[in-house]
């Protein structure tokens, strides 16, 4: 892998590698674009198969955060961090605090928060060494409920377009991933009267939850072939690809996972098959909207944050309408919306204003 070529391809400003010999911490921070403000994006702790996989993930995820933050109307750029380790066996106070020192060394160019493998308690440990941490319990808290709510609102918007009504009662939803967001989304869907089929790579923890929800459990590889109305990917990315798309028997793909399309052409393939794809960084933007509210001048306000999260359905409707009107895939419609805001605000911020101090 030529790292500079990859950074140029994705349009990154900065890629930071950090190794702490005391704790064994191996971390990478990707700062994609700071046109709109400091780069905000969560930290993912994952046992990648290779260094190249870790780099690719942080590049893809941080770019996605730029588009997500722009599409959500936030004055924040896009970034992401990964810790190359197993969250089940390698996590320690020392490792998390070493990671906090990395975040602090960046001087506010990057603000971290929780993501896969990281909890609010972990972020509190990071915050003992760094001030640039969002999503703490004493501020906006766990972003998962806001993310799940945003996915639900986006799913209703897609259902309105495809089925003529936002009512999900009786609709069959196949959920891939029963982590924080997937589990909360499943509960919201159950309350709405939907039928559920679920899976997760950790069945020992998820089967009982599925039973409590009255959901049908299937093995991870079987979820793609479930005949349902909606497929909700709520685990890791790149799951919409040459192997999985031909198996899909759904009308809508709408879930919380980041970077669901392995390549842009897979969005075109979904479109060709008549499957409505709700762009991931729009529908899963509830969590970042909630965390982003911390950076208002008057601090975090729960009601204001969740009011903005509920607007995600309106955003999804606009993107799907634009895609249909212009005959383009929904991902491209979402990208155009985000890029237009970044370009417009970039011109505004280029205007020189003299310092008054």
Structure description:
- With about 350 residues, this protein is α/β, with parallel strands linked by helices.
- It folds into two domains: about 5-65 and about 75-125, Rossmann fold (3-Layer(aba) Sandwich); about 145-285 and about 310-340, Rossmann fold.
- The protein has 13 helices and twelve strands.
- It has helices spanning about 5-10, 50-70, 95-105, 120-125, 145-165, 180-190, 205-215, 265-270, 280-285, 285-290, 300-310, 310-325, 330-350, and strands spanning about 15-20, 25-35, 40, 45, 75-85, 110, 170-175, 195-200, 215, 230-235, 250-255, 275.
- The strands form two sheets. Strands 1, 2, 3, 4, 5 and 6 form a six-stranded mixed sheet that branches. A six-stranded parallel sheet has the order 9-8-7-10-11-12, sandwiched between helices.
- α8 (about 265-270) links the parallel β11 and β12 (about 275).
- α10 (about 285-290) runs antiparallel to α11 (about 300-310).
- The termini are far apart.
- The model has no long low-confidence stretch (mean pLDDT about 95).
What is the overall silhouette?
Answer: globular
- Can you identify the CATH class of the largest domain? Alpha Beta
Query: What gap, in angstroms, lies between the N and C termini?
Result: 46 Å
- Classify the fold: give the CATH topology of the largest domain: Rossmann fold
Task: Specify the CATH architecture of the largest domain.
Answer: 3-Layer(aba) Sandwich
**What structural class do the secondary elements suggest?**
alpha/beta
- Figure out the total of helices: 13
Number of strands: 12
Q: Write out the CATH superfamily name of the largest domain.
A: NAD(P)-binding Rossmann-like Domain
Characterize the main sheet: 6 strands, mixed
How many distinct folded domains?
A: 2
Compute the CA-based radius of gyration.
20 Å
Low-confidence residue ranges? none
Task: Tell me the β content.
Answer: 5-15%
Mean pLDDT: 94
Order of helices and strands: HEEEEHEHEHHEHEHEEEHEHHHHH
Helix content range of the residues, please? 40-55%
